[in-house]
Amino acid sequence: MFRGRHTKVVATLGPASSSPEQIRALFDAGADVFRLNMSHGGSDDHRLRYEAIRRIEKRAQRPIGILADLQGPKLRIGRFATERVALRAGQRFRLDSDPTIGSEDRVHLPHPEILAALRDGTEVLLDDGKIRLRVERRTDQLAETIVQTGGTLSNNKGVNVPGVVLPMRAMTEKDRRDLDFVLNLGVDWVGLSFVQRAEDVAEARKLIAGRAGLLAKIEKPSALAALDDIVEIVDGIMVARGDLGVELPLETVPGLQKRIVSAARQAGKPVVVATQMLESMIGAPSPTRAEVSDVATAVYDGADAVMLSAESAAGQYPTEAVAMMDRIIRQTERETVYHQLRAAWHPGTEATSADAISTAARQVAETLGATAIVTFTTTGSTALRTARQRPAVPVMVMTPRRGTARRLAVLWGAHCVREKNIDDFAEMVERASRAAAREGLAKPGERIVITAGVPFGTPGATNILRIALVEDASAPPTGD
Fold first, then answer.
1. Which of 477, 474, 454, 476 is nearest to 464 (CA)?
2. For 319-338, what is the mean pLDDT?
3. Given a cut of 80, is residue 477 above it in pLDDT?
4. Quick check: 128 and 158 in contact, CB under 8 A?
5. Could you list the residue range(s) of the whole structural domain that residue 360 is in?
């Protein structure tokens, strides 16, 4: 089931998309990876969704990736006696450690870490930035502020402190419980929230211990200062534009998106662009023209995947949203400017045989007009190197490992096929040729470019490039 496009679609599951029938409809509409949002729903809900995805995967005989997105610390104010208060620009308002009910003059801030990190002049944002405060005076117990932007403030609204690295871990006790649960389920990716610096991913990586890919969500301004270090030690990146847009001027977000995508592409790590991509489709059957352009921009930038959040999880038109995303990607990838941008940017080649072979595979495929590049891989590293080159043709990934195939479902251009281990060179060429025809990536008589490593099955040993003619598709896949 070859999608016929390079950029992948991630769809979040939720109340609007929980039944097996609804999940199947999303898959048929174009979803390549499903996201389980651990901020909402209980363990039983996520288990049922996971099991439904795996049944669909078995029937479709196509690897499907599953991303479990951890909630991370949720910073919120306390409650008010009247449930909400009206704050006026210029008035004084206190954030303090007193747990009593709040008023129009003060409210409980149940996070001593925030109070400790505040300084005179620090800006504090409430309710996704709708309310803006400036700290005038602080102690360990309170912060006296002046309201810069007023409005109505209600119970338990979120708190953001732009430009301040908070002395808090990225993982809460809830996250640790959720992580243990999703790893035992068998998810392929874990999304880590509240990443401020490279050190924040250490605990998650240790707990995951290679059982899933670790994807860092770039949603804090402080993470941008450590972007290269974060990219280096994780397996993938998510551009969480919604949170970035709260703590940073909105006009800076498009440029930051391009910077993050470029950094991930340079490192050969999958990068997902997320948040509000087709936001209006939560309640409407079609998106705005600006949203269509936004999705296309992420595709032009070379993102591995684009993600739907509330559109597919809680909206009225979840299937239509996935189908629209699929259509936008297909059309964008047909445009001349897309091919010009793809061809204009290629990363440098590292001084290794594996990287040299991957670079050569792209060049040979384009020179000879091959219809696909076929990579044999155990861990997925060969596929990552090949996709990093952004070749003009699909990358068919043949692997004996189910986990590798599922994890690479998010990777740009990758069409994954499960095959048993190969034993010799002739068998490699025959299987690649037959699989390419069977999967619809090439027709008999067309050329494909094959990369693999000898000895076969040795991780990271890519050292062979072969050009082959495609045979017929009569042989079935050897993977289960």
1. 454
2. 98
3. no
4. yes
5. 353-469
Examine the domain organization and report whether 117 and 254 are in the same domain.
no
Q: Which residues are catalytic?
A: 35, 76, 217, 275
How far apart CA 155 and CA 102 sit, in angstroms, is 9
How many angstroms separate the Cα of 462 from the Cα of each of 47, 171, 451, 455?
Answer: 37, 37, 7, 9
Count helices and strands in the chain by DSSP H and E runs = 17, 21
Residues 6+ apart with CB under 8 A from 477: 61, 417, 418, 419, 435, 438
289-to-34, 141, 280, 315, 327 alpha-carbon distances in Å: 25, 48, 10, 19, 14
CATH for 256 = 3.20.20.60
* pLDDT for residue 453: 80
Please tell me the predicted confidence (pLDDT) of residue 426. Answer: 86
The count of other CB atoms within 10 Å of the CB of residue 253 is 16
Q: What is the pLDDT of residues 39-98, one digit of tens each?
A: 999 999 999 999 999 999 999 999 999 999 999 999 999 999 999 999 999 999 999 999
**What is the C-alpha to C-alpha distance for residues 248 and 64, in angstroms, rounded to an integer?**
34
Same domain assignment for residues 181 and 298: yes
151 — phi, psi (to 5°)?
A: 150, -175
